[in-house]
Amino acid sequence: MRRIMLTVAYDGTNYHGWQRQPDKNSIEDVLDHCLSDLTKEPVRVIGASRTDAGVHALGNVAVFDTQARMEADKFAYALNQRLPEDIRIRASGEVPPDFHPRKTDSVKTYEYRILNEEFPDPLERLYSYFCYVPLDEHLMQRAADCLVGEHDFQSFCSAGAQVESTVRTLYSCTVHRERTRLTIRIRGNGFLYNMVRIITGTLMEAGRGKYPPEAVREILEAKDRRAAGPTAPARGLTLVSYEFPALEQAGRL
Fold this sequence. Notes:
Layout (H helix, E strand, L loop, with lengths): L1 E9 L16 H13 L6 E2 L8 E11 L7 H7 L6 E9 L11 E9 L13 E2 L6 H9 L3 E4 L14 E12 L2 E8 L6 H13 L7 H8 L14 E7 L1 H5 L4
Parallel strand pairs: 3-10, 5-6
Antiparallel strand pairs: 1-3, 1-4, 2-3, 5-9, 5-10, 7-8, 8-9
């Protein structure tokens, strides 16, 4: 039995998220069906990130086990002949049989896009959050700087999430403006449920002057979801990439 890793890109608009759900279309369901058809054996993928409905990805990761003899890098080509146009495999390769994408140390990068102008752009509606209120990206960056490092991010986690610890490390959090388009890029070792979307909503509150940027430190210290800003909509969020240092050091990526 071999374990194959897939780098998966998708437009999440028409799916009820990554995870399998009864009577709902999910990314996992589509991958399982196409892989089972390809390998002629029952396949169930294991995903690295269970993105929500409407969230997009350029570099989510999944693994599956197979007895098929196909060369590992050829799975990407074969699957892309079977998948719908809004899901694509960007790379495939063999990994150790015990590799698990959710139980291996990793670095994840997310981007959240905001369209900050007077009127909505219909071509951006599925991939960015429209905000007509002027946002000061410099204030947003000052607020973002307060989040970098190891912190207890309980205030930035949806209430009721079942996790052993709410401590996470952010390696960077940047706010970049290109004319009327803002991109929040966050890189860290792990993210809580809705964490990036809550961070985005909180940075936007700072950007519109609701509170000073340094108030984000108080929000962290509160360890209370009610202290942070609103949860930004899913459509502006994209999972950009996963990095697995152990695999890279072993030359498996």
